[in-house]
Amino acid sequence: MLKQTIRMVLVFSLLMAAIAPGTTYATGNLLNNGGFEVHASGNTADHWTFRTEGAPDSYIAELSTASVSEGAYAQRLSQDGTTVPGQTLRVVNKIDSGFTAGDSFQLTFQTNITSLAEAKLRAKVEYYKADSTYLGRSLREITNATSDYSAYEVTALVPADTDLMVVAFEVVINANGGYYNLFIDDVQLQRLVSVGDTTQVGIIGGDLKLNTVSGSFMDVQLNHQTTMTTTMTTTANITDNRGNGEGWAVKISATDFFSQDLADPSSAGKASLVLKLPVSNLQLETSSVNLVSGQPVDATYGPAASSFTASNFSQTVVRAQPGFGMGSYNVPIRYTLLVPKTLEIISLTGTDSKFKVGDYVGTREGYYTATLNFTIGTGL
């Protein structure tokens, strides 16, 4: 599989928002022992820590050879049906270097969930200050079993003041009698490094190209009596000059929107907070693929565009099947952002606040920033 990724930063504001394109590539794995291959003793591999919550009576947490994606071992977590809500098995890996505030990361992993009922697997990247103050998280929840190993990813944006990143996998029981058996393997945390600010990227020898034309959200007037939305339209241009007819795909993933530090009015000026606007409130709509030159658009084999709700994992926005898409095409993409009337507190610093992380408060004016990742290539 050949691919290239570019990053666009989305900034939403109740005053104004903008989109700025850039070019990124993924660095090496920041995790120690992400494949669970080095193991001295205990419930998990070296550099990983295991713990429980909710006092589970019966569980399995071990390095297993029964089902692996790569190498010889995978992390197994399992509970039978003698469970109560809130019981949790958790393995974590801590990273204290190799990142700075504002960096974008992608957590990828493989999991084989042979059974799962009244439970959920949560893959998280958590952020902390040096004094263990919790700053926020990026999260992916999986609630269904798989037929074999499946790949998942979480896109993360490091907030200000982060001294420690924690990659965590936890399985949580939702109801009495919940049970599960699963294996986790091939965990990687890779930094997406900016290498330029151009909107045109040469992919695969410079012959498959993606251009993104930036746009801006319109101002939004905060009004709790109406539905608040804002829109913008950008254009993606895909040009395939390779002449080999391999086809191609463009995928998009995004982070949640995060506010800047906001004064906490409940603390008499002693605390500040950061709010999250979920990426699931962002809709992407594509109604057409317009031929610029080259091979005409085929109604069956493409290039064809899709509309969907934005997510932390990659989704295909435009695809050309093999034998098609050998030309240049413009794809207008319309973004519609629904502004909630309440937002979740994901970071709280200072003292005397009447809130805690996880509480919902009324939507505050200010800037909210997210990262939008475009990936183009073959074999996606």
UniProtKB/TrEMBL annotation:
Q: What Pfam families has UniProt attached to this entry?
A: WxL (PF13731)
Keywords of this entry: Signal
Instruction: Write down the Gene3D superfamilies for this protein, in alphabetical order.
Output: Galactose-binding domain-like
All residue ranges annotated as the WxL domain in the record? 224-334
Q: Which residues form the signal peptide?
A: 1-26
Classify the source by domain of life: Bacteria
Please give the name of this protein: WxL domain-containing protein
Organism name: Paenibacillus pinisoli
